[in-house]
Amino acid sequence: MEMLKMLKTRRTIRKFTEQKVEREKLEKIAEAGLYAPNAGGGQGAKIIMIEDFDLIRKIGIYNANCENRNWNGRKVNDDQPSIIDDLTIVNGFYDCQALAIVCIPKERYNMVNGIGTGFTCLENMVMEAYFLGVDSCIVGRAEATFKIPEMQEMYQTWGVDESYQPLMFLCMGYIRGNYPKAKPRKENRVLFVK
Ligand SMILES: Cc1cc2nc3c(=O)[nH]c(=O)nc-3n(C[C@H](O)[C@H](O)[C@H](O)COP(=O)(O)O)c2cc1C
Description:
Helix content: 25-40%
CATH superfamily: NADH Oxidase
Radius of gyration: 17 Å
Strand content: 5-15%
Number of helices: 6
Number of strands: 4
CATH topology: NADH Oxidase
Bound molecules: flavin mononucleotide
Order of helices and strands: HHEHEHEHHE
Shape: globular
Largest sheet: 4 strands, antiparallel
């Protein structure tokens, strides 16, 4: 598929089947993240991959409950409801089968270039996943999730470089049900200056 078509047809998926994501695909998705543009050529992002469904669910339940879920009636998506749309969803990772955690250096956590480097990595992973037929959903609240004492303890047992901090999550799996269409784009968001 041509690149622009891929970018336009990819959607965030939150309803997953029980099918595992193959290890070879997860390796390619992570590799795509490693080749993303990165501030100052510093290759500042690190990726933690988790394939254990029960562990992902455990972290996802913390994630769903670490910040306010009530957005005063504001909706995210009816086709693929988020934890904001459907307050009965208990797992902030939507029972996905694989989870990537993109981490950046703590010292750059509040710097646009540090955050940007995490996000370019994440977006490369999203698009490689889509290319491979793997569906995904970016999920936030990483800082709040890893502030929970049990999560801090767990993080230390993973052997991650402690100068790095989780920035964002990427839920991965295979869609259950029909693939959604894009919402129309808001107008007047591009300006060419002569
Ligand atoms: C920075 C960022 C944070 C996001 N956080 C969440 C999240 O915490 N939970 C969630 O279900 N979706 C999250 N999403 C997914 C967006 O809701 C989704 O991209 C948006 O509704 C547009 O839908 P589309 O990706 O299908 O075009 C996030 C996306 C981005 C870019």
